[in-house]
Amino acid sequence: MEIIGHTRQLNLLRGFLKNNLFFSSYLFRGSEEIGKKTIALEFAKGLLCENKTFGGCSSLHQIPNERASFCLSCFDSAKRDFLMIDENFLPNQVIESDDEKAYGIDTSRAIIKFLSTAPSVSQRKVVLIDEAHLLTQEAQNSLLKIIEEPPANAVIILITDKPSYLYETILSRTLQIHFSLVSQQTIIHWLEKLVPRSPKSEVEEISRLSLGRPGQAFKFSQDKKLLMQFKKTVLQLLHFESKTIGQRQVLLKDFLETSSDLRVDMAVWQTILRDELLFSFNLADLPLILSKKRSMASGDLVKILKRLLTFSETAENFPATADACFKQVALSIPSC
């Protein structure tokens, strides 16, 4: 997917490449589905490229499949100097291991083994760790050693939307680049090119409901059922405010049975409450989801939002408690 927004961050990364300024470890942080991984991959290509071009030689629009058009590193289809760590990675791709999942101690050992050898075709070796917050404590401890004393010509890029899950010592030893949500107008301009036949009202709605995340906007534009399900979720969450406790008990049963991820739903709920709070402060041009003011008092909104933030953090740290956390919040909201 093409990169949407993040002009300042892109200029910074291109500047690093152009001026030959390299750090041994980077941390790309920001919300989900805003383009961190896409940008990290393009930056990694630039780090490996002999011409130090963001996105590699192919981004120069040279003739495809032409050996002379690419530097040796960009032509290397095996990507021998690049290691991608994600949910599909298996440590036995690099070392002897029986571990059948990524992000454990053997993943860190694989990274260390990969970086311990000299580059094959590039001037450096690059490791990209997607969803770095999934690294176990053992894995983080092991990885910290190589972050503190990196081999020559080694670069590690960590990507996360939950930096608080990483050790403070890792955070302090990486160059952190924060990626913000993308503006609605930027997403609208992109969607108008992506789905030119869609009505303007639909494009604007998708942009608004994507909450500043191009990845989510893309999914909504390609899957109308997903968009309708999201709108249904918003309406269900709003209904909790207008029902008695007994009625909420009935709504809860259906909601909990149909929700695909309560932690995501709680994040959406935070946005709804934020919108209501903005309306109560007469900031009607700032809400992301709601289009009109509701009747809950601002004091109650602040209390329930604080409560929701606390329980959302608990659900993130202990996923098995998500149902209980959601119920606690839903049953404690004052009826409108």
Automatic annotation (TrEMBL):
Q: What is this protein called?
A: AAA+ ATPase domain-containing protein
Q: Which Gene3D superfamilies match?
A: P-loop containing nucleotide triphosphate hydrolases (3.40.50.300)
Q: Share an example GO biological-process annotation for this protein.
A: DNA-templated DNA replication
**InterPro entries (UniProt xref):** DNA_Rep/Repair_Clamp_Loader, P-loop_NTPase
- Which Pfam families does the UniProt record give? DNA_pol3_delta2
